Amino acid sequence: MAGRLAGKRAFITAAAKGIGRAIAVAFAAEGAEVVATDIDETALAEIAGSGVVTRRLDVLDAPAIARAAAEAGPVDVLVNCAGYVHQNTIETCSEEDWAFAFDLNVRSAFRVTKAFLPGMLAKGAGSIIVISSAASSIKGAPNRFVYATTKAALLGFVKSIATDYVKRGIRANAICPGTIDTPSLADRISANAAEAGSVEAARAAFVARQAMGRLGRPEEIAALALYLASDESAFLTGQAIVIDGGWTL
Ligand code: NAD
To answer: What DSSP character marks residue 88?
Structure first.
């Protein structure tokens, strides 16, 4: 099949919904063979077919990651999308919140990338993409203490990998989205509704953060991931790319 990712194989975590799902669909539409993974097998099934193979993977489960990587074989593109948004400050962040956030948002990327890196090194090529956030070392956001800390850690993660493997054909980049209209955002809007006065007011507060006055769409993040996955971005590595409707302006 022709397309910007023709001949490439991609492995994506947290691909059943939201940003990960849009990336899986966009990659397949551009000719990639996609292994889309998630814990939600029902939602995953909706994108199976037409270039997308689905597989259950809980990125908190190290042996399962090793099995999934062995089964998938070498890939050209890896997208680490799994992440959870705690709403907390340092005062309200518990030890459990801290451990869970680092396990899901950072350790999973470490384990999954480590599992796929040997295959990329053997090919002498690979694009590693992580979904960080504009809310991190890029911009302070209220009530995002552990979330922002983990997403900032991912920027060090990609810079380090990009530096260590730049001469061996491996690129690593982070996408830093602003507020994107996904199922997880809907959960956060519901959680904030009481404090904001209503669901509409909570949603309006998220919309107001973006200078463009609207939320981003998962497909807009997928378009950037597609560029980073393709050879069009061959000269680009180690970067944190902000895509936020002007939030950080
Ligand atoms: P989403 O809730 O729409 O989808 C999250 C997916 O992750 C779900 O399909 C869920 O089943 C899966 N998942 C949860 N735990 C998992 C696990 N242990 N193993 C595998 N899969 C698991 O989320 P989203 O808003 O699209 O967010 C995706 C990524 O983008 C996250 O890393 C998030 O931090 C980041 N992000 C989101 C926004 C936003 O505004 N939505 C902004 C910046 C960054």
So the answer is: B
Q: What are phi and psi of 223, to 5 degrees?
A: -65, -40
d(CA 236, CA 225): 12
Closest residue CA from atom 3 of ligand 1: 18
Where would I find the H helices in the chain?
18-29, 41-45, 62-72, 95-102, 108-123, 145-165, 183-196, 199-209, 218-229
pLDDT at 148: 98
Q: What is the rounded CA–CA span in Å between residue 167 and residue 1?
A: 30
51-65 tens-digit pLDDT: 999 999 999 999 999
| Residue 15 CA, closest ligand 1 atom number | 9
Assess whether the C-beta atom of 184 lies below 6 angstroms from ligand 1: yes
The secondary structure element, H or E, covering residue 237 is: none
Angle at 83 between CA 113 and CA 127, to 5 degrees: 35
Under the banding of pLDDT at 50, 70 and 90, the label for residue 1 is low
Nearest CA to ligand 1 atom 2: 184
Record the tokens describing residue 186, joined without a space.
Answer: 């809907």
Instruction: Decide: 220 and 185 in contact? Cβ < 8 Å.
Output: no
Residue 141 has pLDDT above 90, yes or no: yes
C-beta of residue 78 within 8 angstroms of C-beta of residue 129: yes
Q: Say if residues 17 and 38 touch (Cβ distance below 8 Å).
A: yes
Please report, in angstroms and rounded to a whole number, the separation of the first and last CA atoms in the chain: 40
pTM of the shown model: 0.98
